[in-house]
Amino acid sequence: MMDETRFRAFYREMYPRLWSYVHRMIADRAECDDAVQESFFRFLRAAPSHLSEADQRSYLYRIATNLIKDAWRARKTQSAWLAEQEESEPSAEPETALAAGLDLRRALEVLSPGQRSLVWLAYVEGYEHKEIAEIVGVESASVRVLLMRARRRLAAFLAAEPSERRDD
User: What is the pLDDT of residues 46-57, one digit of tens each?
Assistant: First the structure.
């Protein structure tokens, strides 16, 4: 079991990084907070102190990724929730990406949740393809292809005329 001092240091290091990752996948702050806390709880319960520090970080991200997937599945079954979200989204398209301040969240929302997760882990967290494969549960060779598809979709969205942009 990880001692309290080591866990506190691990928590201080990982909390902001994990929270940012989860928040990009789950926009609701309360749900995000719950998922992050549940991730740390499950991490402690599993007591992976035998793992290296890098493997512990990957293990924590894997727990969070699984919780995010569970949340997505739950949302899929709640069509009323989806309708509510669509009503709360602004419908006006910006004139240009720069003029409207197209932020990272809007750009990432064009990606599927799985693609968003891969992009975040690779380009924000700086994980290697092998580590990403372990976190999201795919083959290592698949990560390169999946990231390429995500980058293409993102590039196509950003290159599209504002009137042609759709968040599908």
Answer: 877 788 888 899
